[in-house]
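In response to reviewer comment 3 from the previous cycle, which asked for concrete evidence that the modeling workflow produces usable outputs, we include below a single protein chain processed end to end. The sequence was submitted unchanged, and the resulting structure tokens are shown without manual editing.
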Amino acid sequence: MMQKAKLTPAPTGPTSFERVQKICKKHGELIAALAGGLLTLSAYLLGLMQVPLGWLLYPAAYVIGGFYKAKEGIVATVRTRQLNVELLMVTAAIGAACINHWLEGAILIFIFALSGALETYSTAKSTNALAALMKLQPEVARLIAHGQESILPVTKICPGDQILIKPGERIPCDAVIVTGETTADEATMTGESVPVYKKVGAELMAGTMNLDGSVIARVTKRSEDSLFSKILELVQSAQTTKAPTQLFIERFERSYVKAVLIAAALMLFAPHFLFGWSWGETVYRAMVLLVVASPCALVASTTPAILSAVAYGARRGILIKGGVHLEQLASVKAIAFDKTGTLTKGRPEVARFMNTSTLDDVTLIKRIAAIENHSSHPLGQAIVSYAARLSDQAILPEAERVKVKPGFGVVGWVHGTEYMIGKKEMMDTEALNAFHQLEQPATMPDDETIVYIASEGKVIGRLSLVDQIRDSAKEAIRTLKKYGIETVMITGDNEKTAAAVQKASGVSRYIANCLPENKAMEIQKMNQAYGHVAMCGDGINDTPALAQASVGIAMGAGNDAALETADIVLMKNDLTRIADSVRLSRKMSRIVKMNIAFALTMIVFLLATNFLQFLTMPFGVVGHEGSTILVILNGLRLLRG
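The workflow returned the following structure tokens.
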């Protein structure tokens, strides 16, 4: 009798309530602000049409639109025991309602709530940096003990333990190879694009990739003590440190709120006793003071300008994660660049090909590419790409008996002939000397990687590969120098390679042999020397420096961790966009300063005329809201760049 099948119910997706709950949690503040604005507009239109009880929408706009900011203000006041702008805005709106000016209070709440929601979005972008880094950290390791393999969390692996690392796996712990040999891609940690050959006794770094060999390694450090973990700590530390500008703004807000509330309290009583004003006039003037002194125009001085600049940048392929970063870029005096993947393309390319065999160039390179096509090594892939360009995408011949020698090169047969492609250590010494005597250039560039070709006991060719400078690098460096910005290259490469790239790119100076923690330290030194420094990079090894800099800039094709940590992302990998960002930030800074000066002048003027009893509530609203509209329009000019 056939057994009845057991059906496993398919997992169901989130319910409608859960979806709504998720949307409210992520976008609730913005939804509330927009809802408050819509209610305000509806109440105003109903008032024009003289609809009975239409004014009841104003209290609803107060409650819905101002909920998040009022809650934020109350919580912050309880926690810090300091007054804040959120409470002042709520008080000003309530004051406007007390003298029957609901519309003005609702507008104040809407503008302030909207700016707060956008600020929340900007802040949330940077909190994903650590999560992106954590994804690159292996969670488990293959422990080898008593001849048995077991998988354990990396947190339980201790120094002295032996672990197995298979090809294609990320290395879970800092370790030393005990058995086997392999090639490791250390670009995530050192920035070097060319994989490094590792044999017995060589050190492996956690977070790097094991490419083509299975090795057994002895763990040297606990996971929390590895270089990868130190990078996480450096990023976290740099992100939790507040910028001086932010601290100044916080101090200014507290002083401003106290001054306005004290002035409003005095206006409720002092004029009656000092100048003989009636109680009605005194209360009226105090409420007008709260309305005209509310920082609505001050808030509008920055938000529209920032949003316009960010929108313009997005159209130009510049992703700016927050206005504060663009504002800080305006005061940057120096920009540090990573080399691999930033100033350079991050992948080797064949620069020169020498052929001393009896075969023509196309035939030989096709045979070599046929063998290299069986290898996953970046140098081999670069040779295959070069062959495709040289032979106009012709079909490669059949390669047989291909054998990869990790760290050295590859051997294979094509049309019955054996070919060896690899480092000079792989070649016969006498054959190599004979080749050099035949044709040897006077000088070899320091940044080139040389791959030799041998066949039938002779060295018959040589390929010179180099990580090419980006086409946009020279123009970007030249433009930044015109803006008076110092350019510095920080790289993990040696002095010779760094000097060669400096000459090709035009950067002012370079700092070589920098590990990730050294890069962050160099940025700290530059911050002390220049005041404000930007860092441009693309890899996980750059994340501490990106977080430490006043402004972090990442290449769009870079590592996810770098993209999340950076404040600005160049989506099209075009370095000239950095100069565009600097120009945009400086223009935005001028407009914001102009707006703030105008807004403060209007507040002072309105306060003075209110105290002299020249200002009525309608004119106060016109002056206050009119100044707000003017600064918004001035900020919107940045939409044109």
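DSSP finds 22 helices and 22 strands in the chain. We consider this sufficient to address the reviewer's concern, and the full set will be provided in the supplementary archive.
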